[in-house]
Design a protein that fits this description.
It is built from 18 helices and twelve strands.
Amino acid sequence: MRTRKVRPGSAALVLGACGALVLSACGGGGSSFGGAAKTQATGPAKLSIMIGSPGPAETNAVEAAAAAWSKKSGNTAKVIVASDLGQQLGQGFAGGTPPDLFYADASRIGDFAKVGNLYAYGDQVKSASFLPSLVTTFTYKDKLQCAPKDYSTLALVINTDLWAAAGLTDADIPKDWAGLETVAKKLTKGKVTGLVIGNDINRGGVFMKQAGGWVVAADGKTMTADSPENLAGLTQIKKMMAAGTLKFSTDTKPAAGWGGEAFGKGIGAMTIEGNWIRGALTKDFPKVKAKIVELPAGPAGKGTLVFSNCWGIAAKSTHQAQAVDLVKYLTSVDQQLAFTKAFGPMPSTVEGIAKFKTEYPDDAAFAAGGEYGQGPVNLPGFDPVMAAFSSKMATLGKGADAKSMLADLQKNGTAAIAAG
């Protein structure tokens, strides 16, 4: 599953489960679904793997991998394609019958781990094999909870026809905010806006990161939202909006569902999106030509956002040893590259992404972001905080006060951390 393909950001797909997970699965004590795992079964295992899949390419690839592991190990593994992954996981956790293995979104790790829904097996996989940024993303309470499955980052997507029509060349590809302002101005003409992006922190947050800010400190224990750096990032967005060279996709005429739609329809000459845009353009806008480059640096240097899932193992699984063995198989270099070929995700391992860069040079900018990208806040109870901030962020172009927004985020986040 590519939860990051959900337009507003990766947390959205499982956010719907929050009610079930927090009120049902997360509301009780450790006796019913948290705490110690069930007694581990012996003999050949019958594993269940729950995924959320956007189509047959991903489903078939995971089923083929599960079948290959089953043949190799003597176990069996059944892939369950969830119609609503968050809801079905919530029901499984609440009922004490979760799948053995499942896609777990990075932003939900704290919620899952806090109530004991996760079997933290990170010490059984070689953390050094994975990109450091992904290890950080799936670490909670100083423990790597699960193995990163794959990842996506945000990059600058350029409509090459509109770029050429504006008299721009590769020499004009922006390296910093000043360069971005210059090309966005040249590309803005008539119905076309130079840069169109999504209207929440999952897109605009790159400017905060490039300015040297972020929502929480690196240790995940202290809020850093109300800072001059974050204010500089939001101010840059407002500056370009005031110049008419940047719009949120919801503010274009006609309004677009996400940055990729605005880009595909030619009302956005550039957008900031993840590598899922490749498939979207091929399917919906096959005539649009795109060039992918790294995002321009801000005052603090390069910055992008990382979206990822891990292979979660249920604390209530009776086949944890076999599930860990399956995860090792699924995260092997050859298997991750097979997934790349089948449905496009980038490998989460250091060796795998090195080979990816060689085999897919046109997507090198996406891959590079994994070296310096920022993962989502994975603390328990933080989704409502981020959702509230994103709602306010959507009004940046309509006179919203950025300083006040960040102060509210600081206050609400501090309360969430205290409660966690």
